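For the sake of transparency, this paper describes our internal protein records without simplification. The record that follows is passed on verbatim for readers who wish to inspect the format:
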Amino acid sequence: MSARPAGRRRRLFFGLPLDASLQAAVGTAVRPHVRGRGRRVPPENLHLTLAFLGAVAEDRIPQLAALAAGIAVAPFTLELTRLGYWARPRVIWLAPASVPPALAELAAALRERLEGAGFPCDARPFAPHVTLVRKAGRGPAVEAIPPLSWPVDRFCLFESRTEPDGARYVPLACWPLTPAREEEGDD
């Protein structure tokens, strides 16, 4: 008898992880703006979602890994400069003022490959942000903050695990960002 039930589904998403130093910098920069405003996302869960998949059959994870492994996008730097609030779903977020072309390219490449393989994708336009607080009763108007520079050099497939003290986002696999190699003989 198998230890895992047949057809087990896991809640998955592709995203950009923040390293420990950026987690600390974000916490310091936004603390005065988010204090007492809802349920803060734990620093180790901070990320930028590239593509939310929802519940996916466990046996499709290798297919997701193969799709991701074929993506070639150069590393880039993301400048997080805006703090804001969305009344629905009541979150306080941190975002770039503009989207670097490489970030847009990465999100589009993922979406194209996922849709091509039959994975449902969110129909909303890509709005890159890092969720800082959930269930915020109120939040700041969109405001500029001193830039937080984020050198992005990888993306990951995460599993969202529900635990007694809340969700935990666990990276299942990560891929380095690497520019597409020119074909031999190309000028």
In short: The chain is about 20% helix and 40% strand. The two ends are 58 Å apart (CA to CA). The beta strands are 9-17, 39-40, 47-57, 76-86, 91-96, 130-134, 143-152, 154-163, 166-176. The longest helix spans residues 101-116.
